[in-house]
């Protein structure tokens, strides 16, 4: 049977418990063989560069997902053209594993404007989306997304409790000297503190 591969792209600046929880929920619910976490170099959906370096974001991901034998972290997007378009990553992964069935995990917030994604048509030829609700948003309105896209959006829905956490909020807390305990895995909190990753160095 074709390998079922769960792909999780993002900026992870820093990785937080919203990320770790949704990846585990998706893995458990989707019957995947393995998962790959792909930190981007520059997100096409965000302005500016991440605050933490590529190496720091990669190391924080390794700490956050250590112990999950089905999960690996890939630095491939660091070495690809920028910004890190999802379609380029999917094309590369598909060429490496032609028979694999690819699923791109994302929060409902990022797919509202899916029709605007670079080569959206090609993305859905290569992969299905695994969509998790975020914040107080209900299930995304797939009819609306599909109307804008002009075709069906292949997807599965991942049921997960709402985690009202964002990397932005974590960076904001750090720069104003507030605690982040409980919002990121402990080893990540420790790493941020020890390496003074974000300006105020007050991880807890
Ligand atoms: P930022 O606040 O810097 O924009 P972020 O917290 O949204 O960052 P990203 O690295 O940009 O984190 O997110 C990667 C992916 O994880 C996206 O698909 C995003 O929708 C999803 N995601 C992030 N946080 C959550 C959360 N709390 N619940 C559900 N999905 C999330």
UniProtKB/TrEMBL annotation:
Pfam families: CTP_transf_like. Belongs to the NadD family. The lineage of its organism: Bacteria, Pseudomonadati, Planctomycetota, Phycisphaerae, Sedimentisphaerales. The keyword NAD applies. HAMAP family: NaMN_adenylyltr. Pathway: Cofactor biosynthesis; NAD(+) biosynthesis; deamido-NAD(+) from nicotinate D-ribonucleotide: step 1/1. This is Probable nicotinate-nucleotide adenylyltransferase. It comes from Sedimentisphaera salicampi. GO terms for molecular function: ATP binding; nicotinate-nucleotide adenylyltransferase activity. Keywords: ATP-binding, NAD, Nucleotide-binding, Nucleotidyltransferase, Pyridine nucleotide biosynthesis, Transferase.
């Amino acid at each position: 049977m074709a390998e079922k591969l769960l792909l999780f792209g993002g900026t992870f600046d820093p990785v937080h418990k919203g990320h770790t929880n949704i990846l585990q929920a998706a893995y458990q619910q989707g019957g995947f063989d393995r998962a790959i976490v792909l930190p981007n170099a520059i997100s096409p959906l965000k302005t500016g560069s991440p605050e933490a370096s590529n190496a720091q974001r990669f190391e924080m991901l390794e700490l956050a997902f250590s112990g999950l034998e089905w999960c690996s972290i890939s630095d491939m997007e660091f070495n690809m053209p920028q910004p890190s378009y999802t379609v380029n990553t999917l094309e590369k992964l598909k060429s490496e594993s032609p028979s694999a069935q690819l699923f791109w995990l994302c929060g409902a917030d990022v797919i509202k404007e899916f029709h605007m994604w670079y080569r959206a048509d090609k993305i859905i030829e290569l992969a299905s989306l695994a969509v998790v609700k975020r914040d107080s948003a209900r299930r995304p309105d797939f009819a609306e997304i599909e109307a804008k896209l002009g075709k069906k959006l292949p997807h599965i829905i991942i049921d997960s409790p709402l985690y009202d956490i964002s990397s932005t909020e974590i960076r904001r807390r750090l720069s104003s000297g507030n605690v982040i305990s409980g919002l990121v895995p402990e080893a990540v909190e420790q790493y941020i503190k020890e390496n003074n990753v974000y300006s105020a160095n007050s991880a807890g």
